Description:
Elements (H helix, E strand, L loop, with lengths): L18 E2 L2 E2 L18 E3 L16 H14 L4 H5 L6 E5 L6 H9 L7 E6 L5 E7 L2 E8 L11
Parallel strand pairs: 3-7
Antiparallel strand pairs: 1-2, 4-5, 5-6, 6-7
Amino acid sequence: MGGRGGKGRKKVTVPAGSIAGEKRTGDPSSLLPSGSTSGERVCWRFKHLDIDGPWGLTALDHDRLMLLLTDMAKFESQTINELFHQGEWPGKCHDVVDLPIRAARDRLDVIGLPDMTKIWKLRIGGPGRLWGFLMDNVFHVIWWDPRHEVWPSKKR
Length: 156
């Protein structure tokens, strides 16, 4: 059996490019949904994640971690302008020197980021905040603050 008979093969459009080592090279973003704007949409980096600090991810159980990652994936469809330049929702930038909790400023020194001048937050759920640094369209995740402790609400 196994011949080429039966159903026809679906034709896939492949981006222009060269062939290197029997693999096509080219612009893979042309195959992705909204690939042409991917440079404007948020993406995530975790190299500077403060694992051991009070706002690390180690305290999260599996279900809560999956919810957080699901919420983060939803943001990936939005541009940096949509996330951070529309007022305070869903994201906002703060000067690091203005962080009202000294422990947060001190923690940046401990994790090797003493020279950062701006810090960005994304509101996730009710009180939850994802904190990090923004470089172009890349959000470098530092902390998950589920109880809004890094910058407490004045309403409390």
